[in-house]
Amino acid sequence: RTYTDLTLVPVTCVSSSILKDEPTVVNLWEGLKIEDFLMSEDFKTASFKDMMANEDFVFVMRHTYEVLCNNSSVCFYRILCWIRSIIMRPDQPVGKIIIMVGPGGVGKSSFIEFLNKHFFGAKHSILLPNTDAITKQFNGAAAKAIVAFVDEGGIANDHAFQVIKQVTTADRRLVEKKFQEPYHTDAPLNIFLSAN
């Protein structure tokens, strides 16, 4: 079989019609980590009470509300809505960047690791030390990602800020890897930035 192009078109486990009209295009989408759980028998028989009995889940939610959001229900609600938007509509940009600023050691990185492990997974999320892999010419490191976690990173200059703004709100983005032809992907890139 011969393919003419690559793309990343996120689809949910509910809408699995993948490029039926373009059989020569390879879709790099493999699904989010939480989709495995949502399609499992455990989820079909689980209740809210079961979820609240999970000590890890309760600890992370309490820590997020009390420490990371400083007991702000507005902040907590916005973070949950951001996560929900990505899970429910991975093909649509959320259009917002989550930025957590606080002293080192309060658990920002632990929260990012929890989201990466249980919700988004390593297939379509990426952990970055700074925004260069998004804002510089060669952005192929984030090619298959729809979520980028930038840990202890900042936005270096106005050009980088403009690129971040465009990538966060656009339906399509250009992916450019070294020594390869650039291509467009129909996947948004949602950014979570933590800094001291």
Structure description:
- With about 200 residues, the chain is of the alpha/beta class.
- Helix content is about 40%, strand content about 15%.
- The chain has eight helices and eight strands.
- It has helices spanning about 35-40, 40-45, 50-55, 55-70, 75-90, 110-120, 130-135, 160-170; strands at about 5, 25, 100, 125-130, 145-150, 175, 185, 190-195.
- The protein has a four-stranded parallel β-sheet with strand order 3-8-5-4, with helices on both faces. Strands 1-2 form a two-stranded parallel ribbon.
- Helix 7 (about 130-135) links the parallel strand 4 and strand 5 (about 145-150).
- It is globular and about 50 Å long.
- The model is unreliable at about 15-20 (pLDDT under 50).
Question: What does the secondary structure layout of this molecule look like, with pairings?
Answer:
Blueprint: E1 5-7, E2 25-27, H1 33-38, H2 41-45, H3 48-53, H4 55-68, H5 73-88, E3 98-101, H6 108-120, E4 125-128, H7 132-135, E5 147-151, H8 158-169, E6 173-175, E7 183-185, E8 190-195
Parallel strand pairs: 1-2, 3-8, 4-5, 5-8
Antiparallel strand pairs: 6-7
Tell me briefly what this model is:
The chain has 196 residues and is of the alpha/beta class.
Multimerization status: single chain
Biggest sheet, strands in spatial order? Answer: 3-8-5-4
Instruction: Specify the helix fraction band.
Output: 25-40%
Strand-pairing-aware structural class: alpha/beta
As a percent range, the share of strand residues is: 15-25%
Features:
8 helices; two-stranded parallel sheet; 39% helix; 196 residues
